[in-house]
Amino acid sequence: MASATKQGAAMLRGFVRKTRFDTGLGAELPPAYRKFWKEWKEQQPAAVHYVPKEGMFERKEETGEVHPIQNIPLPLKSVDEENYGLWGGEAIIQGFTKKKLMSHRVPRFWVPTLKRSVVRSDILNEFFSVTVTERTIRLIFEYRGLDHYLLMSPACDLRSVLALKIKRRILQDILKGIPAYENNPEKQKELMKEYRKYLDQYTEEEIDWYGLTWIEAIRKRREEIHAENPTVPHKVIFRQKLIEQLREAGIKEVTGEVDETKDTSWMKRLNPFAKKEF
Fold it and tell me: pLDDT tens digits for 171-190?
């Protein structure tokens, strides 16, 4: 019994949970994308739908008992619609409710209040008509603009793919010197002075991989590998080898090196009365 327990413990110690970065093209992705993925999918987002409690323990006023504080995030349900808007970190809450005290609980979904609005990016000099929430509008005002809000918020708080795409474009334009204001050097210089500080958080490679979904990152890495080692069809390789072998064997007709002094027309070869050379 003891030996079986030791064997099971050894197996657990040797067990390593594989992630999507351990197999296939996922293992070929650079650390720059892994950093973004950790910020987007693994980092703990800010509390939006609940108020976190401070400290480690709390005392119940009714009973006087002391319990440890557990700030457990509410279960959120991700939908495709949130990737096409700016929801400010909000999402659909999945839970249960009771109509009466002694009745059975029933499933319920709490959906944030959505509205259509227009936001503007100073860096891109563009307007975007997107679906937003009240929290998104409040955060844009608190951060003094859409650009500051996106640049100062981590990917886990932005959540949506659209927000990450806009943030990626903003970082790329800052890296290029804000080309949207090439005809206005004074405005361009003013914006660069204001937003240059955000480039200290990322390298050029990290900006290039920032905001890409998993499928886009795999496609980008596949294209890089193909550019480094272009695939040559087998028929091209075999044809080249055959031509080299024929050339070494001295067969010039197949390789295209035809002797023009000789008449090699097919009509002459088929003519039984033509004079043949032996």
Answer: 999 999 999 999 999 999 99
